[in-house]
Amino acid sequence: MEWLLWAEHILVSLLMAALVRLAVTEGLQGVLRAVLVGLRYVPGIGELINWIVRMMAAQFAPQLTGGSSSKKDKKPPRVALPKKGLSYEVILEEMKRLQKEKDADPHAGRMFAYVYTLKEDDASKIQKEAVEMFMEQTGLGDDHDRFVQEVYQSFLHTNALNPLLFPALRRFEIETVSMVASFLHGDDQVVGSLTSGGTESILMAVKAYRDRARKLYPQITQPEMVAPITIHPAFEKAAAYFCVKMVHVPVGPDFRADVTAMEQAITGNTILLCASAPQYAHGIVDPIPEVSAMALRRGLPLHVDACFGGFMLPWIEKLGYPVPTFDFRNPGVTSMSADIHKYGYGVKGASVVLYQSTDYWRYQMFSCSTWPGGIFGSCSMAGSRPGGNIAAAWAVLKAMGEDGYMKTAQEVMETTQFMISNVKNIPGLCILGEPHMTAFAIGSRGINILALADEMESKGWRMERTQNPNGLHCTVMPSHTNVRDKFVEDLTAAAEYVKIHNTSSEEGASMAYGLASKIPDKGLVDDFLKEMYMEFYSKC
Ligand SMILES: *Cc1c(COP(=O)(O)O)cnc(C)c1O
Questions:
Q1: pTM: predicted TM-score of the whole model, two decimal places
Q2: Cα of 398 from ligand 1 centre, angstroms
């Protein structure tokens, strides 16, 4: 059999040489195109492809991080702990310099995801009373951020892992959960937890439903959950972490969950249905009343992911905009997630997961009674839970109040509608579907969207690329109010430029999206992404 091994080695070497040549002459795109689905399954080729994927990630990552791909930077020097602690001034100066040099500014209104900041002037008005109450003696000034900092600082070293040690934190958590449950129309049976973010809320819900199914339906050994394809990847993450199979269902042409398709995807192994209010990509709310009715009919629990809309839809609805009934008013909705660190305007690391009753919440809890370190219990993924986040979450809800949220929602909604109606008037562009709140995706009517994104980025905007179909996601925040005219002006000019010059030269992130869409083997794209993430986190 030795000759066979030799033959394979020779074949692999030849192929490798051919691919390296292709990389030199045609660049990375050529190689990627050459790596087709079937190739991976030829013996010996799998390893080769892994090697190519790694090589390409190492070359490509620096284009996105602004680093260098040259050989000599391959291994960055290990950073040592300073032998002698540095002075506060020196550290602060260095940190501010780095932040100024590279980081996006959360207040500049140039980003369309990730940061949710109040405009400074509004913040100071909204929190006036709370600020006075909390900060009479501090002399720190009276804006929202400083208020939150002050609160956070007071709880800097507290830990909510042990609910008995810091009763103040426990109270903040219970009351925060309660406040959110009340505006999401939960009755007095609704319970829940504060978590570190939307992802943790979703992980906890999926874990709870999995454990519930283990208990109630022990015959199910391979649990499944059904969700529209637009559901947030946190559910996919939960599926992967907790061994629940994710069954994705396509959405209709309106980008909303197709309830019939969801029902058809239900099997004897289904333990959970999921829907969004709204889904992130296009800002569109799934038909929750219909999904809820179907869930009741099929005897299945339903999680409504309101991470994005939980702190926006209630106010939009009260302002009179049409919003599908998305919350606990639907009797089939058994749990919800809502992020305080998005439109709740809290600091990063705060979200709420709510359940219809303790019948579901119970399965979220964890305990370990055999540890020599003591009897151990925990309510969520984290062990130690930063108390500052919990205190800040509570304080922000109290300070904003319904009037604060309503006022901000009205302004952000007006900005959104201004942007949407102007985008619709730009030749070559459209809005994907009919967004329900303060987010939308720009679609194409003939324009290369990825080139448009590049053009906008050259004008200083940070764009969010979406796919299937290609689009540009915009979450509208208070900070956009002051730049909305500039946005429309720049977008109009960019669209015209792309149209006239017929540009398609995609760089950086657009190139990644362009490539990904051309590779039929999504497993390969996943492998590439994972390699990229290791690259991102190994070099500055
Ligand atoms: C942001 C978001 C999540 C995940 O929340 P993180 O706080 O980023 O972990 C889940 N679902 C939707 C719809 C979201 O917008």
A1: 0.85
A2: 23
